[in-house]
Write a structure and sequence with these properties.
This protein is of the alpha/beta class. It has helices spanning 3-10, 47-50, 63-69, 78-93, 293-303, 306-323; strands at 13-15, 24-25, 35-38, 55-58, 71-74, 106-107, 112-113, 118-119, 124-125, 130-131, 136-137, 142-143, 148-149, 154-155, 160-163, 168-171, 174-177, 184-186, 191-192, 197-199, 206-208, 213-214, 219-220, 225-226, 231-232, 237-238, 243-244, 249-250, 255-256, 261-262, 266-268, 273-274, 282-285, 291-292. It has a 10-stranded mixed β-sheet with strand order 8-11-14-19-22-25-28-31-33-34, covered by helices on one side. Strands 6-9-12-15-20-23-26-29-32 form a 9-stranded parallel β-sheet, with no helix packed on it.
């Protein structure tokens, strides 16, 4: 792909030869003279001097430093620009698609699959399910009965939509199953990572709004609602009936307890456990106790000094007792 072709399609300011052919996309440290790379974090600026990349995407503040080493594309948001380059690259190298519904897939006759959707190998689409326009189900995806998936969604291998939620009532020493009578409703432009499971609601629906991005191995319990454009990293667990707002991020292996509400624009750090509703936007961290991120970091720094503080306190107590003799 020529640099000039990239600029024609994505914009940006090119400093260098528009006819330079790019044969690969690569990180700064491993890029060669025919690769395109990017620098989005100024703290890695020193890599500009050592990279062998044929061209680097940089922010305006790094224009001069990038020009000093060779060709560059100047963009306001280098990381976003690079993301769009990867999309161009994928379209250019994309192999011709196979059959719309793979022969090994099982699609119930009552299911509605848009003519532009793709159903991959060994998928199962159960009765009454609806798959929207341009949606892609990779291999071994299961969509339970009456569940709805919107347009332009991507479901990666092993995703299960609409398995029964975890609902049981105690009857003495045994458990009585609560039938899960709701469904899962997934909006448009949602991407769901491999082996992620989204349970159907007990009475109402589990809802995933437009633009949500879920990583691999995530568990979403019954009757959960996730607001638009929220993103969750791998191994997050969200218990039943939790409501998560729009434009939130949940770090890997974090957990959200059931029946809690998280406001819009909340960011939860990896491995944190949300044990109470979060009503204000912000960055939250910690297993116990969960707190505003800045306060938690300050308290965590204090915790590291507890042993030293304890010894100092013991020394002062000893001196005080001796002074009283």
């Amino acid at each position: 792909m020529r640099l000039g072709s990239i600029i024609e399609q994505l914009g940006g300011e090119l400093q260098g030869d528009p006819d330079l052919e790019i044969l690969a996309l690569a990180p700064l440290e491993s890029a060669d003279s025919q690769a395109l790379s990017f620098l989005s974090n100024p703290k890695y600026q020193q890599q500009l001097a050592t990279t062998k990349a044929g061209c680097v995407i940089v922010a305006p503040a790094l224009r001069e430093a990038a020009q000093a080493r060779g060709a560059c594309i100047v963009a306001d948001n280098p990381y976003l620009y690079f993301a769009r380059v990867t999309q161009l690259w994928q379209r250019a190298r994309h192999r011709p698609v196979g059959p719309r519904v793979h022969p090994s897939a099982v699609v119930d006759s009552s299911a509605e699959v848009d003519a532009t959707a793709q159903i991959g190998p060994l998928c199962v689409v159960e009765r009454g399910a609806k798959i929207g326009a341009g949606t892609v189900l990779k291999s071994r995806v299961t969509v339970g009965e009456d569940c709805v998936i919107g347009a332009r969604c991507i479901l990666h291998p092993g995703v299960v939509i609409g398995a029964d939620g975890f609902g049981f009532a105690k009857d003495g020493e045994r458990w009585e199953k609560i039938e899960q009578l709701g469904t899962v409703r997934i909006g448009n432009d949602v991407e769901i990572g491999a082996n992620t499971c989204i349970d159907r609601g007990a009475l109402s629906h589990t809802v995933i709004e437009d633009g949500v991005k879920l990583d691999n191995l995530i568990q979403i319990g019954h009757n959960v609602r996730i607001g638009r454009n929220t993103a969750m990293a791998g191994c997050v667990g969200v218990a039943g009936s939790a409501t998560i707002g729009a434009n939130c991020t949940i770090g890997g292996s974090a957990g959200v307890l059931g029946h809690l509400t998280i406001a819009d624009n909340v960011h939860v750090s990896s491995f944190s456990l949300v044990t109470r509703s979060l009503t204000r936007p912000g960055h939250y961290t910690g297993f116990y106790p969960l707190d505003d991120n800045a306060a938690w970091e300050k308290n965590a720094a204090t915790l590291k000094q507890l042993s030293t503080l304890r010894e100092r306190l013991r020394g002062l107590e000893k001196e005080f007792k001796e002074s009283k003799k």
